[in-house]
Amino acid sequence: MKKAIAGFFAGILMTGFLAWQVGGSLMLQEYPSPYGMEETAARIQGNIQAAGWDLSGLRSPSNTIRKLGATVPNVLLVEACNPDYSKPILKDDTTRILSILMPCTITIYEKADGKVYIGLMNSGLMGRLFGPMVTEVMQKVAADQQKFITFDPSKPAPPLIRNKPGGGGGTGKGGLQDLGGC
Length: 182
Fold this sequence. Notes:
Layout: H1 2-27, E1 28-32, H2 37-50, E2 54-59, H3 61-67, E3 75-81, H4 83-91, E4 104-110, E5 116-121, H5 123-127, H6 132-148
Antiparallel strand pairs: 1-5, 2-3, 3-4, 4-5
């Protein structure tokens, strides 16, 4: 009997340890990009707009860190919003806290190997943690995110949309925030 109880608790500990070790890699997804930083960002922006989402920001946290005197690799954050997806989440008191995940952010960054990578939150998996309505919405977000990072090499890259007068966003036409801060 003692062996069975010890085995049960050992199994629980092992499961917890494995979840701790691989949990982060399940929640975040990384993809290599065949393009440089700005072209990757521009192609993602074009795909976001083609999918009917609004561009809400383009930021470079690495620029902010560099202004403080540190040397860091390039990082760009492309931010997008789809009001059809965010509206049901923002309307409900029990899910409004998930606004912390809005806008949808895609990161583009360089690694020491000199290559450019794209990082996404695993929206489909994340949504499952918050009930059926959020699961349904986040499954749609996950499908759209895959479209954002699927590039057609036969088409030229659109121009990178940086900053428009007035900043902000939500125009669907590329009015974006500055390339500043964290």
